[in-house]
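Progress against Task 2.4 (sequence-to-structure conversion) is shown through the following example record, which the project officer requested during the mid-term review.
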Amino acid sequence: MLAYAAARGRRGRWATISPMCTEIDLHGCSVVEGLARFTRAYNDAVAASDAEIRVVHGHGASGGTSKIRLRLRELLSEHPDCLDFRPGEACVDPNPGLTVVFPRRRLPEPVDRLGNAIVAFCAAPKTRDKIVVAFRDHGEPAILAALRTEQRRGRLTVRQKGAHRVFAATAGESPAGRA
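Structure tokens generated for the chain above:
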């Protein structure tokens, strides 16, 4: 079994807490970084046949709503074929800063999720600058890499629209993109 351990206080650390359970702490991570770290830990847990992953994401700053919790649970809800999950509020000891995940299959890598989101965004043609602004949380290098990947896959085309070069989803791509 893969066991990950990190020095106390490091962001996004994860560790094996029992033979069949992994815990990942996403405190201090941005939403994009936290989801990427979760996906890596999740896919490693699937490879190790772990039965449960405890994701500690926190309650949110000053009693607000945790952005990571919202986006993580949205991601988990998008993949019912890969996993089951239970919000911490539904556990024996209710804890809204926790989500328990029961993995079955690997999740798509973050770069694939970004590519899917960009393809959906480009259902109506968009300039490179509009795409970069819309997905700025991912960082420009990751966005440009996703654009190149989706062009190679044939899911995005580049064409001239007046004075602007625009990216558009190909005809066969649904507005929601691929899961």
